[in-house]
Amino acid sequence: MSFKEPLLFVFVILISVSGIAGAADLEHRPGPSLVIRDKGVSEPVFLPPRVTGAKVATATFEVTYNGFSAEAQTAFQAAVDIWSQKITSPSVIRVEANWTPLEEDVLGSAGANRNWRGLPSDPNTWYPDALVDALAGYDVGEGEFDIVASFNSEYDRWYFGADGNTPITRTDLMSVVLHELCHGLGFSGSASVDEGLGSWGTDGFPVIFDRFTEDGAQTAIINTGVYPNPSEALASVLQSGSVFWGGSNAVAVNAGVRPRLFAPSEWEPGSSYSHLDESTYPASDPNSLMTPYIGRGSAIHDPGPITLCIFEDLGWATSETCGEPVEGCNALYDDGNSSDAAWFGGGLAGNPNFMMAVHFRLSDFGYQPGQVEITGFCAGNDLDLTGIGGPWANRVFVYPDDSGRPDDSVVLGQGDISTGDGTGLVTVDFGAPVLLNGDFWVINRGDPAHAGVDFNMEIDSAANVGRSFVSGTGIAGLALTDSGNYILRANLQPTGGGGGGGGDISYWVAAVARISGAGGSQWRTNLGAFNPSGSLVNALISYRRTGGGTFSKTVSIPAGGQVVLEDIVGFLGSSGSGSLEVSSDEDLLVGSRTYNQSATGTFGQYLDGHRPDDAFSAGDTVWLTMLEESAAFRTNIGFTNSGSTSALLQVTLFNSSGGQLTVFTLLVPAGSNVQENQPFLNRAGSSNIRAATASVEIMSGSGVIVYGSVIDNLTGDPTTIPAKIEP
Question: What is the pTM of this model?
Answer without folding.
Answer: 0.49
